[in-house]
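1st attempt posting a full record on here, be nice pls
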Amino acid sequence: MKLQTKYHGEIEIKKDDILTFTNGLPGFPDEREFILLPLQENQLFSILQSLQTKEVAFVLTSPFEFFSEYEIQLDSQTLEQLEIKNDKDVTVMVILTVHDPFNQTTANLQAPIVTNIKNRQSKQLILNDSRYKTKHPIFTLQTENVKG
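the predicted structure (as C-alpha cells):
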C-alpha cells in the first residue's frame, strides 16, 4: 500500500507494520492508524506518521536513550486494552518537540506512546507522575558529548 508522508514523501508500507490507536491520540481522536518510520539521519529518532492525514507526524525517541532513570507503571486498563501479557512485548517511545537549534529539543515524558509489538496495538498513556513533564530537555552537556 502506498502512503504519502510528511517527511519521507511517498512510500510503500505493509499492513502488518500499522500501529492501531483504538482511541486515537489526545488532540487527534480521529487519527487511529500510524506507521513508525526510521529517521535516516539519526537512528535514535523515528517518525510516527498518520495513515489518514499526511501532515500528522510526530518525532519519537526511546526515553531510555536520554533518561536512564525513566520508568512507568502500566495500569490494568492499559494492559487489558493493549492485550499485554509480557513486558518483553512492550515498547515505550516519547514524542519530541523539535526546536531550532536542535539541542533545545524537548521530550514529553508525561505522555509516552506504549505499543504491544505482538499485536501492534498502541496508546498514548497520560501519566499522573509529578516527576515527569511535557517538556524535558533531551540534551544536557553530557548527552551532547555522547550523542551529538
